[in-house]
């Protein structure tokens, strides 16, 4: 049973000082579904707990890593959005080595990127299955790259709404550009 | 009886996960081959007989649905069961691929038991049909594979 499409996206107008206009953000109902989807993927495939925080954590708690795996995937149709996941590299290494039976040094960057690309694919695919059971939206093909010097404060302002999942490997960041 | 299995997914990681799961499923495996998309999978099928295909849907070059259509149009390949293992989980999509002749549908993320259950069920049906065609009595793939363990 999915959510009525007309109630799926909330609009928010930003205060002066930030770029004028509206940013489309996910409604609380959609965030709950995204949380369930991520928890299911991480719980059943990786045996690693994650949870979406209600608010972006305080800046002094971020403990940003040097490298993140940025995996981007979108969906199109009556609902449209692009989600950019920023997985801590340490999380990616843990997951990939478990799947591929290789230790960190034996893992190629390609294998690492492929693992997290598939992770984003499963999370958003699962999410879409919950919010769009009729299949009116189509899932895109994910991409992945290693990024350095990532900061949610800078990226979020430019690219969309910032969400944060807490995990055993630090925060997993998601930048949502919904339309 | 050992079965040849083709795993089709553009993710190397997911192919590794599925192969590992299949190996642990209790099904007697002859050969496991891999392909990164539907086009590569068709090339594998030209080269070697596979008893079942486990395929993703969303892949570059040729996706799973187009691959299934190609298989079903081929006189030699059309009886090979194709099971989809995919993130797409809408009922509309499930109905679409079922109507095209998909033998099974597994949603990602999956528990290993799910792959085992569906694989055994599909192979059992395919094997029973083949045995009947060859004039043998019906045999249970699951029973024979479990007896060996």
**Topology as H/E string of chain B?**
EHEHEHEHEHH
Oligomer: heterodimer
- Rg of Cα set of chain A: 16 Å
> What proportion strand of chain A?
25-35%
How many DSSP-defined strands of chain B? 5
> CA-to-CA gap between the ends of chain B?
14 Å
Any idea what the radius of gyration of chain B is?
15 Å
- Listing every helix as H and every strand as E from the N terminus to the C terminus, the arrangement of chain A reads EEHEEEHHEEHEE
- How much of the sequence lies in strands of chain B comes to 15-25%
Q: What would the average pLDDT of chain A be, to the nearest integer?
A: 85
Outline type of chain B: globular
Q: Average pLDDT across residues of chain B?
A: 85
Instruction: State the helicity of chain B in percent bands.
Output: 40-55%
Structure write-up:
- The complex is a heterodimer of chains A (179) and B (149).
- Chain A has helices at 28-46, 89-100, 109-131, 152-159; strands at residues 9-13, 22-26, 50-52, 67-76, 81-88, 138-139, 143-148, 161-167, 170-178.
- With 179 residues, chain A is α+β, with helices and mostly antiparallel strands.
- In chain A, strands 3, 4, 5, 6, 7, 8 and 9 form a 7-stranded antiparallel sheet that branches. A two-stranded antiparallel sheet of chain A has the order 1-2.
- A 5-stranded parallel sheet of chain B has the order 2-1-3-4-5.
- Helix content of chain B is 48%, strand content 17%.
- Chain B starts with a strand and ends with a helix.
- Chain B contains 6 helices and 5 strands, in the order βαβαβαβαβαα.
- Chain B is of the alpha/beta class.
- In chain B, strand 1, helix 1 and strand 2 form a beta-alpha-beta unit.
- In chain B, helix 2 (38-47) packs parallel to helix 3.
- Classes of the chains: A alpha+beta (179), B alpha/beta (149).
- Chains A and B meet through helix 1, helix 2 and helix 3 of A and helix 1 and helix 4 of B.
């Amino acid at each position: 049973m999915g959510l009525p499409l007309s109630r799926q996206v909330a609009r928010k107008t930003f205060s002066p000082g930030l770029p004028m206009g509206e940013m489309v953000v996910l409604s609380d109902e959609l965030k709950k579904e995204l949380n369930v989807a991520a928890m299911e993927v991480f719980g059943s495939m990786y045996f690693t707990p994650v949870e979406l925080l209600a608010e972006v954590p305080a800046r002094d708690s971020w403990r940003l890593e040097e490298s993140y795996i940025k995996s981007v995937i979108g969906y199109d149709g009556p609902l449209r959005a692009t989600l950019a996941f920023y997985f801590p590299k340490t999380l990616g290494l843990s997951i990939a080595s478990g799947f591929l039976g290789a230790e960190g040094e034996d893992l190629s960057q390609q294998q690492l990127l492929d693992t997290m690309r598939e992770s984003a694919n499963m999370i958003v695919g699962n999410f879409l299955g919950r919010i769009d059971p009729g299949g009116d939206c189509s899932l895109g093909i994910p991409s992945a790259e290693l990024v350095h010097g990532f900061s949610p404060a800078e990226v979020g302002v430019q690219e969309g709404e910032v969400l944060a999942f807490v995990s055993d490997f630090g925060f997993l960041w998601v930048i949502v550009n919904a339309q | 009886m050992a079965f040849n299995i083709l795993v089709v997914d553009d993710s190397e990681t997911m192919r590794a996960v599925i192969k590992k799961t299949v190996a642990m499923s209790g099904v007697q495996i002859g050969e496991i081959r891999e392909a990164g998309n539907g086009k590569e999978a068709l090339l594998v099928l030209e080269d070697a007989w596979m008893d079942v295909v486990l395929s993703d849907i969303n892949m570059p070059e040729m996706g799973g649905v187009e691959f299934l259509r190609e298989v079903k149009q081929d006189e030699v390949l059309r009886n090979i069961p194709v099971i989809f293992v995919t993130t797409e989980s809408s009922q509309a999509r499930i109905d679409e691929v079922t109507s095209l002749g998909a033998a099974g549908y597994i949603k990602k993320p999956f528990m290993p038991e799910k792959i085992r259950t569906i694989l055994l069920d599909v192979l059992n049906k395919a094997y029973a049909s083949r045995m009947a065609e060859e004039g043998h009595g019906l045999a249970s793939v699951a029973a024979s594979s479990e007896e060996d363990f």
